[in-house]
Write a structure and sequence with these properties.
The protein is of the alpha+beta class. Helices cover 32% and strands 13% of the residues. It contains eleven helices and nine strands. The longest helix is centred in the N-terminal third of the chain and has 18 residues, at 108-125. 35% of the residues are buried. The model is unreliable at 9-61 and 166-170 (pLDDT under 50).
Length: 380
Amino acid sequence: MKTISRRDFLKGALAGTASVAAAGILGACASGTDAATLAATAAETTAAPGTEAPAATTAASPEGLYIPGTYQAQADGKNGPVTVSMTFDANSITDAVVDVSREDPPNISDKEQLAASFQEAILAAQSAEFDAVAGASDITSPAVAKAAAKCIAQAKGEIPIEVITDNTDAGGKRFFNESGTYEGILHADEYQKGHCHYTLFDSNWTTYAQQFKMHGCSRLYPFENGADPNIPFQAIEGGMLPGLIESGFVVQADTVEELAEKLGLPADELKATVDHYNELAHAGEDTDFGKEAFRLTPVDTAPFYGAKNTGYVLCTMDGIQIDTSMNAIDTEGNPIPGLYVVGNDSGCYFANTYPNLSTGMACGRTVTFGRLLGKQLAQM
C-alpha cells in the first residue's frame, strides 16, 4: 500500500468527501503509543516479530563481500509493504524469501508462485538487479528490488540493520475528529504508531460531499453564487480516483474486511471501528470526538475506498523576513537593497498555524501584497 500525502489526496477534496472525512477514520497508527515506543518506531529499524535485531554494523567483513547472516527490509508495494529476507555467506546470497502476500494475484497459489519467482531471480542474479518476473506489476517489481537492495547494503555494512516490527497490533482505531484543520491530524499522527492515518470512504461520497459545506480548494460543487469549484467532483470520480486506484495509492474493496487486508490493518478491529462509527452517524451525534452532525455520515455502502496518509511539505509558512514595504531584511533588520519578497516565500504572515478554514488567506495576501509592491516599485 503506497503512502499518499495529505495534500495530494486532499486535492480535489477526497478527504473532505470521505464520509469518515478528511483525517481518515483510523490510524493503523495505534492510539496510546507511548514516547518510548514512538522513539523506537520513528527510526526505520524494523525486525521480524519475535526476533532480536542484530547489532548495527558500519563496515563489511574484510574477509569477503558480505557479513554473513540474514537481513530483512521492506518497501512499499501496490497494496502494502513488500518484505524481503536474504541470507548471505561471506561472498554470496544463499537464500531469499519474498513476501508479496498483499500484491495483485488474487489466489494464494499465484502469490506463492510470484514469491518463488522473485526468489529464483534474486538468487540467479546474486543482485537486486534481477530479470523481470512474470505476473508482477510495475509497482511490485521495483518494491522487491528496493527491499533486496537494502538487504544487500545491510550485509555489506553500508547501512544500519533494518528492524521490521508488526505495525498492526493496535491499529484500526479512530483517534481524531476528522473535521479539523490541515495540521491538526498531522500533529495527532505524531502520537500514533507509524506517524500516519488512514482515510476511508464509501460509494456515497459524491452525495455526502454536498452536505459537508466545503470551501476553498476542497470544494467539489459549485458555490451558492454559481462560481465553479477548483476541481469538480466529476474530475475526481471519472479520472483522479480511478488513477489513484490503478497506481496503488487508493485501494478499493467490496467489504470492510477486504479493505482492512489491503490496507494492512487488523480486519476485526477495523470492522468494529466502522460499525461503531456508523452507529454514531445514524444517531447524529459523535459522542467520541465531537464531529459536527452534518459531516457525520456512515461508511456502509460498497465499494469501500481507503488510503494511507502522512505529512507532506505544502509550502513555506514563514519564509524570508520582510519589512512593511515587502523588502527582505537581513539578520540586523536592515532592508536588503533590490530584494523584495511576496507570497509564500515571504515570512512574517503566518505563525504557528495555516488557517485553511479561512478561505483565500494565502492566495488573497499573495495577490494583494504583489499588487501593492508593484505599485510601489512603479513609483520608484
